[in-house]
Amino acid sequence: MGGWRIPVALLVLCSVPLTAGTLRLVQLAGGPAVMPADDRWAGFPVALVLHIVGAAVFAIVGAFQFVPRIRRTHPGWHRRAGRVLAVAGLLVAGSALWLTLFHDPQPGTGPLLLVLRLVAGTTMIGCLVVGVAAARRRDFTAHRAWMIRAYAIAVAAGTQVFTQGFGEAVFGPGEVRGDLLKAAGWVINLAVAEWAIRRSARRLRSRPLVAEGASA
């Protein structure tokens, strides 16, 4: 069960934004309005649909890439899923940039969040491109690190549920405050990602020493 704790935790983290995205798609398709209507999305906004679908694929399939047993025993699946994730991740980041630049901002948000979303989307695309390039040259350590960073940026919406929810409960609502609380979601995720990357690197460096000590 130990190898499944991370994907389960990631799926739980993403459950709120994934549920909200699914309900929004149902609403856009003419289904019941289970959640409040958003006047920004008239008709069938392709960029929003691509963003929601891409985010669902990236979050769900990506979570299982963290299971060591799957990577070891099903390397073919890992590679094929990785290709799907690269495309889905680019859809997520590209559609996020499009929505940020060409659609009205979310009510209650300010220019700070607009800039942060542009930075986050651009950075995610950069992480994906560098990560895929690393895999092609068989530098799997760098590949893993850059894909973890891309995933951390993508699932920040789940962390923002907590940073904004608890933050506004403690500090109260406000445009700049809300933007900063959303920014905290990206910061926390990237900090955890860097910790995981460095922890993995330390383990890899320590393996020869362990083996040498055992043989002695």
What does this protein structure show overall?
- The structure is a single chain.
- The chain is mainly alpha-helical and 216 residues long.
- It has one domain (2-206).
- 81% of the residues lie in helices and 0% in strands.
- The chain has helices at 5-28, 46-64, 68-73, 75-102, 111-136, 140-154, 156-171, 175-215.
- The longest helix has 41 residues, at 175-215.
- The two termini are 33 Å apart.
- The relative contact order is 0.09.
In brief:
This protein is an all-alpha fold and 216 residues long. Helices cover 81% and strands 0% of the residues.
Write the layout of secondary structure elements.
Elements: H1 5-28, H2 46-64, H3 68-73, H4 75-102, H5 111-136, H6 140-154, H7 156-171, H8 175-215
The stretches of 5 or more residues where confidence is low (pLDDT under 50) are 209-216
Number of domains: 1
Q: What is the terminal separation in angstroms?
A: 33 Å
Shape: globular
Rg computed from alpha carbons, rounded to a whole number of angstroms: 19 Å
Largest sheet entry: none
Instruction: Specify the helix fraction band.
Output: over 70%
Summary keywords:
216 residues, mainly alpha, globular
